[in-house]
Structures are given as C-alpha cells and as structure tokens.
Amino acid sequence: MNKPVIGFIGLGLMGGNMVENLQTRGYELIVMDLNKDAVGAVLARGNATEASSAKELAAGADIVMLCLTTSDVVEKLVYGENGILEGIKEGATLIDFGTSIPASTRKIGAALAEKGAGMVDAPLGRTPAHAKDGLLNIMAAGDKATFDKVKPVLDDQGENVFYLGALGAGHVTKLINNFMGMTTVCTMSQAFAVADRAGVDRQQLFDIMSAGPSNSPFMQFCKNYAVDGVSDLGFSIANANKDLGYFVKMVEDMGTKAAIAESTSANLQAAFDAGMGNGNVPEIFDYFMKLEK
Questions:
Q1: How far from 6 is each of 31, 42, 125, CA to CA, in Å?
Q2: pLDDT tens digits, residue range 119-156?
Q3: Beta carbons of 28 and 35 less than 8 angstroms apart
Q4: Cβ–Cβ contacts within 10 Å for residue 205, how many?
Q5: How far apart are CA 54 and CA 187, in angstroms?
Q6: 3-state class of 125 per DSSP?
Q7: In the beta sheet, which residues pair with residue 65?
Q8: What is the rounded CA–CA span in Å between residue 215 and residue 10?
Q9: Does residue 48 sit in helix, strand or coil?
Q10: Angle subtended by helix axes 237-253 and 259-271, to nearest 10
C-alpha cells in the first residue's frame, strides 16, 4: 500500500527531526517554514517539495501535520487567507503536534469536519533526539475512526502512542502533564534557593530529599543546575510560561480555578519578564536567588 503524502508545517528542532524520521521511513513530504535553511535541509534529503502557502500544502497532502509554537499561530494558518481550510482535501486529516488550547482545537476540528476532513490532536513527550529516531510519546485524541486511519503513521513517529478519546483530550492531558512537571521544577528550584539563603548546603538538601518520596527526574534536573551548574532540561522558561498560561485558561473555561497553577504561572511570567525566557526551566533558580520582598 502506498504511504500517504505528508504536509508538514513547523521545522524547528522537534518538527525538523520528525520530518527527517518520516523521510528515512520513505514518506513523501511537502513542507513549509519561515526558516529557509530548515526547508533546504529537508529538500536536500530528497522526496520532498516546498509549498508556498498553507493552502497549497494542504491541497497536496493526505495528512497535514503541525508542529508550531502557539494556538494563535495554528489558527492563523488554518483560518487565514490561503490557509489550510481553503486547501484541505475531503478525507484528509490534520494532526496538531503542538501544545494548544483545547477549546481552539475543538473549534478547528468542527471547521474541518464541515470540509469533510478529520483532526487529531497529538501533543508530544520526550525530546528532539527521540523524534529523529521515531521514539516519541504521543498523546493522541479525536474521532476513533480518524485516529485509526493515521495510527500507522503515528506508530512510525512514536514508541508509545496513547489514544485518549474525544478531540481535545490530548491537549488537555499535555497541559496537565506540563502543569505538574513545571510546578515541580519551580518548587524544587525555590527550595534550593531558600536552603542557600538559610545556610543549608544545596547538595545536602538534595541528598536528604532524594532519599525520600520527593525524588524524581525533575528533582535531578533542578539539582543539576542549582548544585552543579548544568542546565540539561531542554525546555525553556518561555515555553513553560506559555503552557501554564494555557492551563490556567483551560481551568477557567471549566468554571473552576487552579491557585497552584496560577502561582507557578506568576513565577514563570516574572522570570520571563526578567529576561530569562530563553533559559531552561531549572534556571528559574537564579530568579529565586535574587528575589526580594
């Protein structure tokens, strides 16, 4: 059976490696990105073309994949002039691999359904290195028949592909996951800063806490920076700040509140405003070390 033609928008670290993996596995690609060097690298590997618009890309693809930064960017590409909605074929599927607002995802899915196209939200876990080898964790949601149709392609991209139910559930799960993870990192980073101010050795704090149930990979990442000066959690304060903002909005849309998430979001926003957005999240330790009343 012939492999579906893949249209891919967003060739950053994650998206670029995902595309390389798909090319290695014999897929034909149509790509689009503002970074022409990233596009050139895809074209140089062969069996790929560049689209001049999202409409053109969608018209030529059986599956359109997005790996983008924000819901606003996704919506502009979907609804804008020469956008995906203008070009997508009946029977095609849009897969959003980014971290988006679930309400936006469901709205886009409804618009695509009117065109006879499907949608799967499939945010990602793990790193760009895993993407290159097809070993991502993929949290997929959408109409079951649509999911089943694209699952062979998702299996080529992910070691673990989870089906979570109705459209939007993938993005809900990713936001919950990032709320938990980034709150843990902010909490542990502040714990190291408070210990330092109190005259407690940071290494000793880690030795004691990591011997108990608080131990986790996130604690290790925080220790690597706060104790050893190694910043090795490849997720920026800017991205964490965006995701926590999305989580807070999602909870508000549910008619409830999330005070813990609001606190995490406020600290991430403050670090971002202090010019630390490009740093990895454990580097928020530096913000807490300088924090005054």
A1: 8, 13, 21
A2: 999 999 998 999 999 999 999 999 999 999 999 999 99
A3: no
A4: 20
A5: 41
A6: strand
A7: 8, 95
A8: 35
A9: strand
A10: 150
Taken in order 273, 275, 280, 286, the sign of the CA dihedral is: negative
Report pTM: 0.92
To which residue do tokens 């673990």 refer? 160
Neighbour tally for 82: CB within 10 Å? 14
Residue 270 CB: number of other CB atoms within 10 A? Answer: 15
How far is the C-alpha of 68 from the C-alpha of 264, rounded, in Å?
Answer: 23
User: For residues 152 and 3, what is the distance between their CA atoms, to the nearest angstrom?
Assistant: 10
Three-state SS at 92: coil
- The residue among 52, 72, 73 whose CA lies nearest residue 10 is 73
Tokens 């022409």 locate to: 36
d(CA 23, CA 3): 11
Which candidate, 215, 232, 218, 230, places its Cα nearest to that of 189? Answer: 218
Closest C-alpha to 168, from 235, 85, 246, 257: 246
- Residue labelled with tokens 């459209």: 167
**7-51 pLDDT, tens per residue?**
999 999 999 999 999 999 999 999 999 999 999 999 999 999 999
